[in-house]
Each structure stands twice: as C-alpha cells, then as structure tokens.
Amino acid sequence: MKVGFDISQTAHIGGVSVYTENLTMELSKLKDLDLVFFYSSLRKPYHGTLKNVKQFFLPPTLFEILFNRIRVLPIESFIGEVDIFHSSDWIQPPTRAKKVTTYHDVIPLKYPQWSHPKIVAVHKKRLEIVEKEIDMVIAVSKSTKKDLLEISKIPAEKIVVIYEGVSEIFKPQSDEDIEDFRKKNNLPKEFLLSIGGVGKRRNLERIKQASKDFNLVIMGETIKNLKYYELPLLYASAKALIYPSFYEGFGLPILEAFACGIPVITSNISSMPEVAGEAAIYVDPENTEELAKKIKLIVEDDSKRKELINRGFERVKLFSWQKCAQETAKVYSKLMNL
Q1: DSSP letter, residue 112
Q2: Residue 161 burial by CB count (10 A; 0-12/13-18/19+): exposed, middle or buried?
Q3: Co-location of 122 and 215 in the same domain
Q4: Entry pTM
Q5: CB contact at 8 A, 135 and 158
Q6: Are 273 and 213 contained in the same domain?
Q7: Rounded distance, CA 75 to CA 280, Å?
Q8: Distance (Å, whole) CA 317 – CA 252
Q9: Using CB atoms within 10 A of its CB, is residue 240 exposed (0-12), middle (13-18) or buried (19+)?
Q10: 15 and 144 together in one domain
C-alpha cells in the first residue's frame, strides 16, 4: 500500500507538528506501508529522519491557493501515484487516491474570535472540500468528533477517533539535571507551570490571579525559545501543571506532565477529562476561586500530590504513538478494501 503524507506542519512549532512527526516516524516502521512524504516550506529545509521526502521551497500560502482554491494540479504531480493520501490540517489537495485527513480541533470554526480572520477563511474553505471529497476523517478525541458533527456535514461513519500519544522523551528527570536546568533558565526553586497561547483560550488571566501567592512560569511567555528536548526538564522542574483551558482538541501537555511525574489541574470541559481520566484535579475554568483552592491543595498536600503523580503514570500508559500509528494504518487498510 503506497501512502502519501503531508508533513509540512513539521516546519512549525505546536501540537500538530508533534503529532505529524511522531505518527509518521511510527508509520514508517510498519512493513505493509510504502510511504512518500510531501513537505513545503519557504525558509525551513526538512531536517528530519524520514526517507522519501519530496521537498518544495514554496510558501504554505501558495500551496493553500493551489490546493484549496485553484485545485488544478493533483498531489500526484508532486509526489507520484499513491493509494492513500493523508492531508494536513491546512491544505486539501485534489488527488486520485483515497483521502484521509486529521482534525486536531475545530477552533477556527467553532471559536473564530480566537483566530486570525485569514486562518478562519482557510479552515472554512478546507472544510467545504473535506465535506465533499474526504473518505475518512481522523479525530484526535471523542470531543473533537462531537464538535465536527456539530459544525460540519461530515457523517459520523466517516469520522474515527484515534488518540495521540506521548513521546518517549517525556519521563522523570534526575534531581541534578533539574537543578542545572533551573539555574540555566533562572527559574525559581518551586513554581507552577502553565502553557501560553494566542488569545484567551488558555485562560491565563484567571491562572495568574488564582496563583498570585505562588511563583508562576508560563511556557511561551516567562520562558521562551526552549528546544523540544528541553520540555521534559521544564515539566519535571515544576510543582504542577495548571491547565484550565477553555478548549482543547486533545491536550498533549496533560500527558506530557503525567509522564514527567507532576500533577495536573485542568478543566472539566472539552477533551480534557477524556484525556486525563481520574488522574487529574478538575475545575470549572470560569471559577477563579475554585482554581485558587485547588492550586493551594496541590502545593500543600503531599499525599494528594503523590496519589495524582502515581495515577498520572498509570494513565499515560494508555497512550502511545505506536498505537496511534497502528490504528491509523487500519484506517488506510479499510479504505483500500472498500
């Protein structure tokens, strides 16, 4: 089975890039798949380890126009004939192959106020194509599938839920490495960690207010430009991850925190309970007072912290990129046998 896969998202930083990189790495280990990869970036050459990467030094905006709007050239013009083409969350090129795409979330469609108008327009246009042409949609959570059913015309039988995994680099760190990392980045000895983002989705104002009596480090704001391989040290250095987001398609930081051995406070809505199970403390993301109480609990109650850390280690065992790849390959096989 020859599969084409758009890996252009790996040129950027974020959850979609992590998904694309880890999933394709595991797919490339499966013997039944013959993979060819499409990669387009104007300034960033591909530096990964995947083989058979067809690389094009053109801006994503140009390919968006070519594939989502003009739609004259099929993807086969760039990567050759394939049986399956797995598109990214940005472009939906025409193809003679069976079509698979992944929806990580529907933020630009459900909450357009959190995205730039141009991004909203791209996602609206792409959804129109997906609704008409796609053979199978992969949703990264039941929550994302539910959202797709609410905002799109995609039938339920064409949406399959396949959970994301967590990279093996996320694991407990030694006290010595944590101390070196803390000193190198001028971090306080004890701090709470939260994740920054564009707009109000990550609920940072309430986080800041609720944690005013503690040191707070915000990834992307108070600490910037970390390498991906440094993230386990950041998690392991923190007292807890404070993640009361208003919306997540999946919520990878929850699993990453679990794997590194720190407790998590997160929201009782969207995909977060689905991912965290019984291993996190939940709050109403609108309730600052409740969040402040839970933060105080997780900082001061050592037995509760240990209980949550142990639950997190057990919970994260349910998710892996190997499992994600195997279930994705089953989608490909099913389409080939229709």
Answers
A1: G
A2: middle
A3: no
A4: 0.95
A5: yes
A6: yes
A7: 43
A8: 14
A9: buried
A10: yes
In a domain, 285, yes or no: yes
- 44 within some domain: yes
If we measure between CA atoms, which residue out of 178, 141, 139, 180 comes closest to residue 158? 139
Mark whether 139 and 252 lie in a shared domain.
no
Contact call for residues 10 and 39 (beta carbons, < 8 A): yes
* Pairwise CA distance, residues 47 & 66, whole Å: 25
- Are 204 and 245 contained in the same domain? yes
Torsion angle, alpha carbons of 278, 280, 285, 291, to 10:
130
The parent domain of residue 224 ranges over 175-316
| Whether residues 6 and 145 fall in one domain | yes
CA 177 – CA 229 distance, rounded (Å): 13
Question: Residue 193 corresponds to which tokens in the numbers above?
Answer: 């960690």
| Residue 45: partners with Cβ closer than 8 Å, 6 or more residues away | 55, 57
Q: What is the pLDDT along the chain (338 residues), one digit of tens a residue?
A: 999 999 999 998 889 999 999 999 999 999 999 999 999 999 899 999 999 999 999 888 899 999 999 999 999 999 999 999 999 988 999 999 999 999 999 999 999 988 889 999 999 999 999 999 999 999 999 999 999 999 999 999 999 999 999 999 999 999 999 999 999 999 999 999 999 987 789 999 999 999 999 999 999 999 998 999 999 999 999 999 999 999 999 999 999 999 999 999 999 999 999 999 999 999 999 999 999 999 999 999 999 999 999 999 999 999 999 999 999 999 999 999 97
Question: Do 142 and 55 lie in a common domain?
Answer: yes
Q: 38 phi and psi, to 5 degrees? A: -100, 125
